[in-house]
Amino acid sequence: MAGSSIGNIFKVTIWGDSAKNGTGIIIDGCPAGVKLSETMIQKFLNRRKPSGKSNASSRFENYLSSFHSGVHNGKTTGGPISMTVSVSGLAVDSLNISTLYRPGTADYAYDCKYGNFGAPGAEESELIAKIAAGAVASAVLESVGINICAYVQSIGPVPISYINSTLEALDKSSLNMPDLEATEAAENYLSKLKDAGDTTGGVVECIISGVPAGVGNSGFEKLDARLAQAVMSIDLAKGFEIGSGIESAAITGSENNDALYKDSDGNISKKTNNAGGILGGVTDGSEIVLRAAFMPSPALAKEQQTVDINGRPALLAASKSPDTCAVPGSCVAVEAMAAITIADMLLENMSAKLENLLSFYKK
Fold first, then answer.
1. Looking at the whole model, is its pTM more than 0.90?
2. What are the angstrom distances between the C-alpha of 360 and each of 28, 93, 357?
3. Of 137, 149, 192, 164, which Cα lies nearest the Cα of 25?
4. In terms of C-beta density within 10 A (0-12 exposed, 13-18 middle, 19 or more buried), how is residue 274 classed?
5. Fewer CB atoms inside 10 A, N or C side of the chain?
6. How far, in Å, CA of 224 to CA of 250, rounded?
7. What number of helices (H) and strands (E) belong to the chain?
8. Partners of 62 in the beta sheet?
9. What's the DSSP call for residue 360?
10. Which residues 6+ apart lie within 8 Å of 188 measured at CB?
11. Which residues face 71 on adjacent strands?
């Protein structure tokens, strides 16, 4: 099946179509000498796990990663990195899914394309592989001072207040929201939805700091286009924007343009960041700010009207493993896909100018 690889130099390929049987990742093009361990991968994977302390999810599962090549004595060797991630404790609904199309899922579309729905838990298996690969990319970025932080900006109709938002609150929040008042309001909203057997979506905001100006490409390989492709590959993602995004369509050019000035260190800076750190597909040295909108989980804890593979009316049984809101667990996935994209484009950028080659090879 096409679409299992991403990246030009830092190239990630994932395999495995069932969470029950685990998943695998191969990363080619990772530089040698990057500090990397299974513990570092595990920290990323653990962030995907439901906390068990929130109304967002009642699922309980565990992930365990292991390297098979490409890492020796705690550092990458420069060869292909091969690793697998096993999953335990994941409850997968299997009632009638071989004959009934589940509303809100790709069952019907996949049946039209492949003649089957795909294996149960395939979406989670794919997502775990992306997160594990993103952990490797993040290790590369951290070595050059680039940091990525994603958090929940809103759940359903409950947004955070930026005035009340702090990193300390983010660490304490059960929903990955940097605003504890918003966390409480969102938990109350989720409690009502949980009782009703319903679900909701939300928005994840991601800030990437430390990326120098001049990273990216023009044309079809613009950095914002590549980020959009990567983030929109995450399960349930339905919207993407950079900087002021959709809001920029409703304001004037004089309001939207970021005024330039020279700061006290003699560097070119901007007074605002409506562009979100990217102009013309290339970074301008500001923080990259992106947002991803996620739809509600289609697995409801109540019956849903549907049809079977012959088009006959049917009722889909209530899910036994619903996520009232899958957005909190998607933050680490957004970070992972952003990291893979930035790492790849950083490596590409090394050949953008002759002076880059001269600085490395000329003696």
1. yes
2. 22, 54, 5
3. 137
4. middle
5. C
6. 20
7. 9, 18
8. 88
9. H
10. none
11. 76
CB-neighbour burial class of residue 260 (10 A; exposed 0-12, middle 13-18, buried 19+)? exposed
Task: For 200-252, give the DSSP string.
Answer: --EEEEEEEE-PPTT-B-SGGG-HHHHHHHHHHTSTTEEEEEETTGGGGGGS-
Q: Which amino acid is at 221?
A: E
Report the DSSP beta bridge partners of residue 26.
Answer: 13, 82
The DSSP letter of residue 102 is: P
Q: Using DSSP bridges, classify how beta strands 81-88 and 147-155 pair: parallel, antiparallel or unpaired.
A: unpaired
Kindly report, residue by residue over 115-140, the tens digit of the pLDDT.
877 666 677 788 899 999 999 999 99
* Contact between 56 and 175 (Cβ < 8 Å): yes
Q: Which two tokens stand for residue 139?
A: 């290790």
Looking at the chain, how many residues does it have?
363
Helix (H) or strand (E) holding 182: helix 180-196
What does the block give as tokens for 330? 């998607």
pLDDT digits (tens, 9 = 90+) for 237-276: 999 999 999 999 999 999 999 999 988 888 888 999 999 9
Q: How far apart are CA 144 and CA 350, in angstroms?
A: 14
351: CB partners within 8 A, 6+ apart:
357
Burial class (CB in 10 A: 0-12, 13-18, 19+), 166: exposed
Cross-strand bridge partners of residue 343: none
Which run of H or of E encompasses 331? helix 331-349
State the Cα–Cα distance between residues 242 and 32, nearest whole angstrom.
32
**What does the buried/exposed string (b/e) look like for 300-330 if buried means 16 or more CB atoms within 10 Å of the residue's CB?**
bbeebebeeeeeeebebeebebbbbbbbbbb
Q: Give me the residues of the chain with pLDDT under 70, please.
A: 1-2, 17-21, 51-53, 89-98, 118-121, 363
Gap between the Cα atoms of 5 and 27, Å rounded? 10
CA-CA distance, 202 to 297, in Å (whole number)? 11
Strand partners, 240: 292
Task: Report residue 9: phi and psi, to 5°.
Answer: -105, -55
Burial class of 100 by CB neighbour count within 10 A (0 to 12, 13 to 18, 19+) = buried
The answer to whether 7 touches 344, Cβ cutoff 8 Å, is yes
